[in-house]
Amino acid sequence: MPETKAASAKKKVKLPINKEVLLKAWQLMCTASRMAETYDENKEICSKYVHSTSRGHEAIQLAAGMQLRDYDFASLYYRDESILLGIGMQPYELMLQLMAKADDPFSGGRTYYGHPSLKRDGFPIIPHQSSATGMQAIPATGMAHGLKYLESQGLLPDGKNKSVVLCSLGDGSVTEGEVSEAFQMAVLKKMPIVYLVQDNDWGISATGKEMRTMDAYEFAAGFKGMERMRVNGADFVDSYMGMQKAFQYVRDRKGPVLVHAKCPLLGHHTSGVRKEWYRGEEDLKLHSKTDPIPILEKYLLETGVSKKILQELKAVALDTVAKDYEYALNSNDPDIREFDSHEFAPTPILEEKGERHPKGAEKVVMVDAALHAVDDILKNHPEALFYGQDVGGTLGGVFREAATLAKKYGDERVFNTPIQEAYIVGSTAGMSAVGAKAIVEIQFADYIWPGINQLVEELSKSCYLSKGKFPVQSLIRVPIGAYGGGGPYHSGSVESTLLTIRGIKVVYPSSAADMKGLLKASFYDPNPVVLLEHKGLYWSKVPGTADAKTPEPDKDYIIPLGKANIVVQAEKERIDKGESAVIITYGMGVYWSKAAIKNYSGRVEIMDLRTLNPLDWEAVTNSVKKHSRVMVLTEEPLLNSFAESLAGRISNECFNYLDAPVEILGAANLPAIPLNVDLEKQMLPNPEKIAKALGELLDY
Known about the structure:
The structure is a single chain. The chain is of the alpha/beta class. The protein folds into three domains: 19-329, Rossmann fold, CATH 3.40.50; 363-551, Thiamin diphosphate (ThDP)-binding fold, Pyr/PP domains (Rossmann fold, 3-Layer(aba) Sandwich); 565-699, Rossmann fold (3-Layer(aba) Sandwich). It contains 26 helices and 21 strands. Strand 6 (227-232), helix 10 and strand 7 form a beta-alpha-beta unit. Helix 5 packs parallel to helix 13 (307-329), helix 6 crosses helix 16 (421-434) and helix 16 (421-434) runs parallel beside helix 17 (452-460). The longest helix is centred in the first third of the chain and has 23 residues, at 19-41. It is elongated. The termini are far apart. Mean pLDDT is 95; it is low at 1-11.
């Protein structure tokens, strides 16, 4: 964009804002307005993919964007194209995204218009976020949380530049429960974040009166410690001065701020939901009265800027939009051969290292192996922190899996969160974006469901949709499984649901040694990892699980994800005679299998998958080819499970090597684990059930 021209004043007026800023805002308003008009005029092309524009919101968005610095962070919403113009993005760059072109700077044609992923020198960092309205509040707050933590540890460069996180929200999104979780943590930890709420009184076709009894400013009063401001979002001067005050408040580290900006909606909700479909003439006329462009024009003329200067700047804006549109229209489409790149960022952990059985090592239970692994990580990585429900303080987790850590490393690094699983999961995306490395815990697998939205929308898609710019390093520990009387809300298995989420890794250790090696590999993996830890194996107190207690590996021990382990070998003679089978399992299934094969000496191999995604398919196929008889064993209810899926894949891809149908065994297809221990046993697999099915498989 050409530099704006200085205006010669007709009279001396002391302006509260530098005139160059005002003229730049005018030119960018004209740019944004003309972009919206261009999209409407060419809607057959521009509406191929759904988009929104900032029409009516230009003043508040430019006021925010023009004050963001290259050391700041932002989390925007889908209408925020004027913020992007305000930080220096060019119209053609946004148009490349509009048309899903190869050179779209954010995603290479993978995601919607107005969904930035920006990591560029001289610009604020804008991590990927979803379209799930309001969901960006948690990762944004996680960024502020991470910045505050890194500052507290002296891990950021010294200097006067204090970073701000800007979280932009539409007014309709503030009713989302996850926004409240973000607000709660922001005030609890006095985080450096500005929540900008743009209120145009519409949520698609629903009006504010239909959706709420208070606006965001009034709602935020319930969060003690949240500074609140109102600005006229249609007036650039009022918006700029208000945002300047809000940013300074946060840079001074006084706590979070909510800025409520009332502004008109002058465009469509989106290109797919056009204003004429749900808005009457009276409403459109009312909103047009506060159009930000004539308001700024009037102010500039009153303060001595000539009409000619404004017309020249507008002409430059219109010419730029026209040329940029043609450039974007004629740009290349993405290379379809790259459609599947960047599902995951490459991991540095590619081989097993360290000593699994150091000489003289004492045996440890799984829960202690996990504790020691986290301890090693915190000791060696000051950017790492650990949080979740009840993991801080003196308790150290309901299973004592974090015992002593808070006392050893302090409450800034190891701490309790409120009961809000969405924040626990989603904040890790923000932490990752600023360079903090979070280990978090969901107290029981049955409690993970409130966090699934963040796991799916914010964590799993980030690497792919940002073309590798923003992989999310996140280690989520989840105690899982039935362990004798835990009942319906503390015994569930959730791996099949997790495995339908692309872009995350799912790990399931079954011994102390594997726990230590896999937990460390999960931490060093630059992608989201869910570590499932069976409660029944934690202390090896459940009959038959003594082998889960192993000599403790050394501090350097690590196991690459995606490598299965043969726990029990079959005898070669039995294999050669075609008298063997392999049980493919994980978790508690390893120990049920060990007990079940006592009457089939030498005939059964037991494979512990250890990682469910990525799956060690090579190990699976090798064992299938070797034995020709396969059982897939799970603790989950069988219907539509991961075990059924794996068995189906084996049948499909290894059919020519099978001498019998793939046997599948799991829990009964019921919605919950009953409390009574006898009912629980009846529902779950056990060695007797496995031995019976195994005998039928071997005799087939």
